[in-house]
Amino acid sequence: MEIEQQLWGMTPEGEAIVLYTLRNARGAEVKLTNYGAAIVGIVVPDREGRMADVALGYKRPESYFFDGAASGKTVGRVANRIAGGRMTVEGEAYALEVNNGTNHLHGGTKNFANRVWESRVETNRVVMDLLSEEGDQGYPGELGVEAIFDFDDDCSLEITYLARTDRTTPVNLTNHVYFNLSGEASGTVLDHELRLNSTRAAEMNERQIPTGRLLEVAGTPQDFTEFRPFRPGIDSEFNHIRDFRGYDHPFAIDGWKPGILGEAGCLRDPKSGRQVEVLTSQPCAMIYTGNWLSGGCPETKSGGRYADHAGVAIECQNFPDAVNRPEFPSPLLRPGELYCQKTVYRFGTY
């Protein structure tokens, strides 16, 4: 594994933005930056051996500053939504920033996606660290976080998140990379095909908050137990798909067990023959078909602008609003415990 690092830019505060390129023996690459502990490029071959970048991203490093799409970034302390920005932890009520309609989203405006992480190369991996102080974005406790990125000759990208706290606090970390397996500048992903190891999806209310009930997906537009494209169901009224302008739903991973790496599913592109298999230790996969990409994204790395549905995110995480939902696995991390979650994106062809 070859790893290159270079200065990519600077923040307005004078902090260095570093670009890392991990290149394997097959010539495939993963590009990372310490701003937001983000994936900014994934170059892998198609069925004919032709290389293309399959991760959405921007031309300039400053375009990642507070981008609404959180493209490729690590989000936290708590990824996804907390209803009304309110939670109770060990009997104490907390009011968090409301930054998404009536909800708190991805840990607040200055969440982990919008910070410069300490970063370094460790042999054949890149490791990034962040210290989130007591009261950061309204959360209790000081939280130390580590993001570890591994890439191998089999084109598997492994992301490991570790965290420790000195006071009980909710933690739900994920990466927000968007895939377009035809290439990041190739248009819509609605004809990509998805298979999920999931027979149940969370029932959502109109504010994009789970009700706590899990719906059987069999025979519905959310039935991805066999490969199916997004296009036929993208405008369905089922479970608010149309209201959300596409898929933006949490799917429960069948057979999930805490701390065990299991199969989440596989995304494939009939046009290029590329596919990405997804494994995770998390209980849920959030499927988001880039429903709000148009208009809000900066200039892309290919010099254009992304339209809605130009990429799909498969965000492995805990369920949205889990801190307020005893039906879901608890997101609480306590002093003396280690938060450890892993997701693997295994790229190949079919």
Question: What do these coordinates show?
Answer:
- The protein is an all-beta fold.
- The chain is 0% helix and 42% strand.
- Strand 23 (262-268) and strand 24 (274-280) form a beta hairpin.
- The two termini are 25 Å apart.
Radius of gyration: 19 Å
The largest sheet has its strands arranged as 11-12-13-14-28-24-23-18-21
How much of the sequence is in beta strands? 35-45%
Number of strands: 28
The largest pleated sheet is described as: 9 strands, antiparallel
Weakly predicted, low-confidence segments = none
Query: Quick one: overall form?
Result: globular
Q: How helix-rich are the residues, as a percent range?
A: under 10%
In short:
The protein is an all-beta fold and 350 residues long.
Architecture blueprint of SSEs:
Blueprint: E1 2-10, E2 16-23, E3 29-33, E4 38-45, E5 51-53, E6 74-75, E7 81-82, E8 86-89, E9 92-95, E10 104-105, E11 118-122, E12 125-132, E13 143-151, E14 156-165, E15 169-170, E16 174-175, E17 178-179, E18 193-196, E19 200-204, E20 210-216, E21 228-229, E22 248-252, E23 262-268, E24 274-280, E25 284-288, E26 312-317, E27 332-333, E28 339-349
Antiparallel strand pairs: 1-2, 2-3, 3-4, 4-5, 6-16, 7-10, 8-9, 11-12, 12-13, 13-14, 14-28, 15-27, 17-26, 18-21, 18-23, 19-20, 19-22, 22-25, 23-24, 24-28, 25-26
